Amino acid sequence: MGSLEDFQDLDGRLKEIFKWFHSHPELSYKEYETTKKIREILEEEGVEILPCGLETGLIAVIRGEKEGPIQALRCDIDALPIQEKSGLSYASVYPGKMHACGHDFHITVGIGCALLLKERRKELSGTVKIIFQPAEETALGALKILETDVMTDVQRIWGIHADPTNEVGTIGIREGAVTAAVDRFVVTVKGVGCHGAHPDDGKDPVPAAAAMVQAFQTIVTRDINAFHPALLSVTRIQAGNTWNVIPETAQLEGTVRTMDKKDRQLVQQRIREIAEYTALGYGMNAEVEWIAASPETINDEEMVEICREKALKMNLQVVPEERSMGGDDFSFLEEQIPGCYIKIGTGKGQLIHQPGFAVDVKAVMITVEYMAGLLGI
Ligand code: NI
Predict the structure, then answer these.
(1) What parts of the chain have a pLDDT lower than 50?
(2) Distance in angstroms (rounded) separating the CA atoms of residues 376 and 32
(3) From ligand 1's centre to the CA of 208, what distance in Å?
(4) Angle of helix 32-44 relative to helix 103-119, nearest 10 degrees?
(5) Lower CB count within 10 Å: N or C terminus of the chain?
């Protein structure tokens, strides 16, 4: 590899690989065919695959001949339960399933890097692990990777995400927090049910729950520093099942997004206080269940600088990475070691998680070259 012709060969081959993955999307934890295909392609080229006991997903390793750090590239591999309406000739062949978050692009870049780095092992400084991670859409798939021991010796980790708000050839990077910590809460207000005509015979949980919804909104506006991004949404309210009965319980469910560890703790504490004391004020009790998902993703300053330099050297356009109150479980992987999550322009169009989302295949080879550069050649 190395000549222009070889590059064109790899480019053509990766485009075909991308189209195959795009048309064969599989949902979280069900990525069996996907895993099999990745394995086939890598094994055919003699890329080493680490035995790590994953049911879906796999980890490839490329050992360079020069001294250098152990680095990892994380590529998530799952799709979404969306009916595709992209109009592409290679659209999903499975009804109701679609690669609408660009993870097919991430897989292809991972494969491309593995093949390129393997071919150029002589020039490669250090060792590279390519992590094909299952179930990112559950926000917890990265924990499967942590259950193996493949991350213990990794010194730096890189993550990529397709970005349909930028043209091909654009790299979005930013220091600090780029995706939010994602948490879920469920509040159960426990009243006393009774006849709708005699509320005095019971304890109506509905007004108490309504008061909580209002009061929760003051957490972001009154408790959090105005310069810190944070949001709280109550997304489900449930109580009763008919018109003339005061229900026994009311339930609120929602999500909290923060970008600072102290804020994350504070919001949880305030939700508990408001729920419990409001319920008390209405003569009843409330129980709060807090379900923590992934933490915020924080880009390492030094790695961002390396990204910027490499992009400029390759004549790519560097733009400030758009911060998102969405989460990415990549953050679990970079909680212990320096990490950097890069947005890759894949052509402007419908946003991710939409049925018309599409990646411009021209982005594949550019990204492979860029990431292979960051990984040590
Ligand atoms: Ni995604």
Answers:
(1) 1
(2) 30
(3) 38
(4) 20
(5) N
